Amino acid sequence: MIAIVGPTASGKSSLALGVAERIGAEILSADSRQLYRGMDIGTAKPSAADRARVPHHLIDVVDPGEPYTVFRFQNDARAALAAIHGRGRVALVVGGTGLYVRALLDGLALASSPHDPDLRARLEREEPAALHERLRVLDPESASRVDPRNVRRVIRYLEIVLLTAAPVTPRRGPSVSALRIGLRPPRAVLVGAIERRVREMVAAGVLDEARALAARGIDPRLPSMSAHGYVHWAEHLRGEIDLETAIERTARDVRAYSRRQMTWFRRDPAIRWFDPTSEDPLNAILVAAA
């Protein structure tokens, strides 16, 4: 198995297609937003043509209003891997959602995380900044990993800490043997790629996509709608901001997210990093897979 990881807009999908066609592999997406149907442009899903060239898995799995957890991803991904291997094919795990990649490759024991609906309801009534500060006091490592604006994740971490009196750091199960390739272009190159991607989304019709989601009554507070840009496209469609402001805010959010992605992936010493502007990760993968 081969994993291709890195920040958004670093070239993972293009590399994965090249590898898959050369070695007869299938692609398993480790992207927490490409799971949702009807959110194609805003999540930069592989095109229909690309998916016709190479089989893809765990894309368009659920509707935006349906909950989908990392525990469910772990089970679905393991089933997909078993099917891929059963066909005698190589699996390429491709994506930038670090927790999904780690849950699959490092065997995190996720099912034992406790839940308390009453505690969660109390936490949901608190201010986001206060929640993150409490997490920082109780579990500094987890607080450093989670974006304070991701209130749902902050509350989940707090719930675990308060119910178990233990840090969130998940237990590890057996790791999966995988060649782990990371793409890390220079920051200036990545920032430029992010800017181009956001503007290409607009040209491709992301506003129509956001309009269709709103027409379906998809609650903007749902986890699916935290995919970058949708909140700002909705603001523009409501006349609250102009299009250029929506583009700038979306690019800003994606840039910040790319930094958090790199912070996460740097913790994995097994990843072999490549600068795709000056190195050839495709050749390295082909040599390793030979």
Task: Provide a short characterization of the protein structure.
About 50% of the residues lie in helices and about 10% in strands. It is of the alpha/beta class.
Task: Describe, in plain words, how this protein is organized in 3D.
This protein is of the alpha/beta class and 290 residues long. It folds into two domains: 2-109 and 177-289, P-loop containing nucleotide triphosphate hydrolases (Rossmann fold), CATH 3.40.50; 117-164. Helix content is 52%, strand content 8%. A six-stranded parallel beta sheet has the order 3-2-4-1-5-6, sandwiched between helices. Helix 1 (12-23) runs parallel beside helix 13 and helix 11 (230-237) runs antiparallel to helix 12 (243-265). The longest helix is centred in the C-terminal third of the chain and has 23 residues, at 243-265. The chain is globular, with a radius of gyration of 19 Å.
Low-confidence stretches: none
Q: Count up the domains.
A: 2
Global morphology? globular
- Portion of residues within helices: 40-55%
Structural class: alpha/beta
Distance between the termini: 12 Å
Strand order of the largest sheet: 3-2-4-1-5-6
How does CATH name the architecture of the largest domain?
3-Layer(aba) Sandwich
The oligomeric status of these chains comes to single chain
CATH superfamily of the largest domain: P-loop containing nucleotide triphosphate hydrolases
Strand content: 5-15%
- Major sheet, described briefly? 6 strands, parallel
Radius of gyration from the alpha-carbon trace, in angstroms: 19 Å
Mean pLDDT: 88
Count of distinct strands: 6
Task: Output the number of helix runs.
Answer: 13
Q: What's the SSE pattern? A: EHEHEHEHHHHHEHHHHEH
For this structure, the CATH topology of the largest domain is Rossmann fold
Kindly provide the name of the CATH class of the largest domain.
Alpha Beta
